[in-house]
Amino acid sequence: MESKVRSFVRKGEVTKTGGAGGGYVQAVGAKPGCHGVSLVSSGLDDLDHILRLRNPLSLIVGGGIPVGGLVMVMEDIEAPHHMPLLRFFMAQGLVHSQPLFFATPLPSPQAFLGTLPAIASRSSGAASDNTKEGDLRIAWQYRRFLNEQQALEERRYRYEFCNDFDLRKPAERSLFTGATIKCESLARGAHLDSLLDHCRVFISNLARYTGEGQLVGRLAFQSLCAPQCMQSCTDWEMLRFLQSLKSLLRVSNAVALITFPATLLTPSMAIRWQHLADILISVEAVLDDNKEMAGMLTDYPDILGFLRIHKLASINTQVPTIPEAAMHAMKVVRRKKLVLERLLFAPVDATSGDSKTGGAAGLLCGRPANASSPLDF
């Protein structure tokens, strides 16, 4: 007698199969989100906060990249501001011991792994306190207890949903020990079909782990449509590759992040790429001679670049998610931490209006400076 199989998954139910439509994934680094999907961190806490989703009750929950989702980052030819997002995405996967697939036009992808950032240490304050109390003699049993507590705290911090990374330090060698990392160089002139086969094999290996041993894989593609990679591929072949990759992600425990220079594509093809993305982000460089922008923003000298949210994921739902703010400023705090902040605009000068009061009411009730009539508001 055949067993009955349900055609739906109850919201909030944890299953053993995983996938974008198969319930929450029980894996390290993944947490339940709304609409029956699991979330993994992008590696940047501020970006996870921006990528928050809403449930049918309009309650903001979670934040991160849905498992089975495709993230695209449009590069800026003026500055490589997309590289920190790519490095954080890859480093966060290594922290959670998640399998990593990396494709880049660089001739040596392994050399790029050495540029991944290290985990920012949280024990600096405790270390300074111990140095201040250096004159005190502590019994060796108590010192051993402190070391065990510190190791436990570091282990807990290691398996947080999102970690803080230090841009000044390279990743620890311990993260690469025993890690599953597959690297492919796009500069060798290989065809996209072979790259898709490698992705299919990488994703199929994730299905071997079930139950509590499930793993969420990460696929990272750097400058996918750059001139130095895949010279023999046409625009339609690239589009077919993206469609096949997205279909593979939908039925697997994996997420993918692709950076691409949109200006090198034709306008019609760039729009097709953007429609295929579940989450679409663009980065822009800051122009030093933009005096108009400098007058509008209060913290313009501290801004490294701009991050714009074009599209948020809507997996397992027909309700689109609208971000609270589309534009964010990229800043580096103390030369080691990347943060995203809302743009802070300078207050408008209300003293230049024709209103007799010369206050803020002059902007609301006064006529424009180029108005032809007093009644033209």
From TrEMBL:
Q: Name one Pfam family in it.
A: PAXNEB
Which keywords does UniProt give here? Cytoplasm, Nucleus, tRNA processing
Give the UniProt subcellular location, in the record's own words: Cytoplasm; Nucleus
Q: Does the keyword tRNA processing apply?
A: yes
Q: What is its main location?
A: cytoplasm
**Has the keyword Nucleus been applied to this entry?**
yes
This protein's pathway reads: tRNA modification; 5-methoxycarbonylmethyl-2-thiouridine-tRNA biosynthesis
Family, as annotated: Belongs to the ELP4 family.
What protein does this entry describe? Elongator complex protein 4
What species was this sequence derived from?
A: Sphagnum troendelagicum
